[in-house]
Amino acid sequence: MAVAPGWLAAQACQRVLKRAFSLHKAHSIKDMENTFQLVKNIIPPLTSKKHKGQAGRIGIVGGCQEYTGAPYFAAISALKVGADLSHVFCTREAAPVIKSYSPELIVHPVLIMPWMAFKYWKLDVYVGVLKDEPVSGRRQGDLSAGDSPDAVHEVEKWLPRLHALVVGPGLGREDALLKNVEGILEASKARAIPVVIDADGLWLIAQQPTLIQGYRKAVLTPNHVEFLRLLEAVLTDPVDSSDRRGAGLRLSQALGNVTVVQKGEQDVISDGEQVLECNLQGSNRRCGGQGDLLSGFLGVMVQWALHAGPEKMNGFSPPLVAAFGACSLTRQCSHQAFQKYGRSTTTSDMIPEIGPAFSRLFET
Ligand SMILES: NC(=O)C1=CN([C@@H]2O[C@H](COP(=O)(O)OP(=O)(O)OC[C@H]3O[C@@H](n4cnc5c(N)ncnc54)[C@H](OP(=O)(O)O)[C@@H]3O)[C@@H](O)[C@H]2O)[C@@H](O)CC1
Ligand SMILES: Nc1ncnc2c1ncn2[C@@H]1O[C@H](COP(=O)(O)OP(=O)(O)OP(=O)(O)O)[C@@H](O)[C@H]1O
Ligand SMILES: [Mg+2]
């Protein structure tokens, strides 16, 4: 018996939806189908009328001596999901390493390391002495704290050309670097640029939640430990963290409706008003770097969703829909890679799956 290709596509779609739906009571298959449709609505069509950059210019702020893989994963996933240009802003040590992974990434060695802050501080004092000028206490204090106006300025120069920033993968937790990031976040907010905050960026937010308080174009992507750290930092009353929906909702509300993506066995996404869950089957491999891929996807999708506008969202906020798309895609890539490589699957194996996974989820 001949089987129509349309029927096969419909069956494949149903199988994906059944895996997505899993056993969660709060969502019917219809709900899940509708949410996938919302993600489909935000995807910009590929046409001959567009020029380079229109599908997305994304910046990743992260990458230090210890961690070069994380910013690479975030930056390459942004390109593979459909962005046209991906920039990495990292430390001087990390730049040649990240460049060597891929010729497709634009790498800016602009973030300052603590020893450089110290060098500049000494230079400043030296110049002050030569000019016979006293170095003010405040200026000395700023620089010894690792402040680097240059690093912020270097990133700021690029901000008018960027559609979204992903802040934190492989950043590290040195005070000098975090100080740079404070300035970069303030500059991004002033320009209303969407920011996805992950990994060590979340460490900074746990120290200073006011940095993103009330900024509705921010999306936080904590893993389990990062989520607990944020809860503790932001909420004064005790919260039952085993109620993941309730805890996510409360954290988002306390942060002024910043979208929070709690990664885990299910991904629980909340903007303080609604909660979406992504249960699409991923894999049982927990190799490092999968969250970095997710943050890169989200950087692109959040700007797609904001650009598509609220009328295409059926009452959901754009960051919520974008987060659902990024979570689904990460899990689908993990599932496909695991089917091929089983126990030996690593995050690098997920990268060639991005195109096929995207088609399977959003183009059928
Ligand atoms: N290839 C690269 O360059 C990569 C670099 N990366 C970069 O590393 C930096 C640090 O980020 P991170 O996420 O590893 O945080 P970190 O504080 O070291 O870990 C905390 C500890 O928490 C635990 N733990 C974690 N998850 C848990 C869970 N679900 N449930 C329960 N426990 C859990 C676990 O503790 P343990 O099991 O040892 O008790 C873990 O050791 C950051 O810049 C990031 O971007 C990564 O992106 C990976 C790829
Ligand atoms: N127990 C689980 N079962 C299935 N999928 C999971 C599970 N835990 C996490 N994931 C998925 O793995 C991806 C990364 O989540 P994870 O919690 O590992 O982030 P992370 O710790 O920040 O990763 P990274 O190593 O990149 O820093 C997400 O897509 C999430 O849905
Ligand atoms: Mg992570």
UniProtKB/TrEMBL annotation:
Binding residues annotated for ATP, in chain numbering: 263-267, 282-291
Listed GO biological process terms: metabolite repair; nicotinamide nucleotide metabolic process
Any Pfam family the entry gives: Carb_kinase
Top-level class of the enzyme under EC nomenclature: lyase
Gene3D superfamilies documented for this protein: 3.40.1190.20
InterPro entries registered for this protein in UniProt: CARKD, Ribokinase-like
One annotated Gene Ontology cellular component of this protein: mitochondrion
Organism superkingdom: Eukaryota
Membrane-crossing residue ranges in chain numbering: none
Enzyme Commission number(s): 4.2.1.93
Amino acids binding (6S)-NADPHX: 170, 223-229, 292
Cofactors, names only: Mg(2+)
Protein location: Mitochondrion
Main location per the UniProt record: mitochondrion
Molecular function as annotated in GO: ATP binding; ATP-dependent NAD(P)H-hydrate dehydratase activity
PANTHER family assigned: ATP-DEPENDENT (S)-NAD(P)H-HYDRATE DEHYDRATASE (PTHR12592:SF0), ATP-DEPENDENT (S)-NAD(P)H-HYDRATE DEHYDRATASE FAMILY MEMBER (PTHR12592)
Protein name (database record): ATP-dependent (S)-NAD(P)H-hydrate dehydratase
